[in-house]
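Newbie here. two chains, one complex. Structure please?
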Amino acid sequence: GDSVTQMEGPVTLSEEAFLTINCTYTATGYPSLFWYVQYPGEGLQLLLKATKADDKGSNKGFEATYRKETTSFHLEKGSVQVSDSAVYFCALAPDSNYQLIWGAGTKLIIKP
Amino acid sequence: EPEVTQTPSHQVTQMGQEVILRCVPISNHLYFYWYRQILGQKVEFLVSFYNNEISEKSEIFDDQFSVERPDGSNFTLKIRSTKLEDSAMYFCASSDVSREMYEQYFGPGTRLTVT
């Protein structure tokens, strides 16, 4: 069945460092891909999305490109801030239904 | 900005008891969802709901679970006879049928603890 695999955390970086959180997926057809973020004590917030191959989603300085050839959707940010500390979830929506299938989440810790 | 709300934030119940988790979706949204996350595990889809009926459900959503839209604003998840393994964070979400339905907006979650 469809699945999402993302790098294990926690990922600890210093402020202004470059961030990459890897996400790969297995799916039939043409899924949509998402990154959600969960700040401490809060719910799941949509960070960015891409609905077809080669689309780039971007928001708040974060970017991810839908790579069908490598079945990947890696999250990147050029210069992280302490306020980016959160858990980041990669997810996909199969093209046949509306269920979101989730990765395990990656906790990001940014130190000043 | 409109948001999905959930109550209570934390519910403690004894095994075998019934619980109802409540959600208020974004007002103009028409699709509603429940997900759960057992501590340390992935977020899992439970059920989706549209036009007053279940659209899809997962294998987790067995006969002990039910959902209801009792009025124009609330969306509830009922667990009839809770088990220890039902302890999890339960997230409600909604989406707007006039936009891409995959853009689901989530509430803050209800932490259910079954003792």
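Moderator note: Chain B has no helices and eleven strands. Residues 1 and 33 of chain B are 20 Å apart (CA to CA). Thread marked as resolved.
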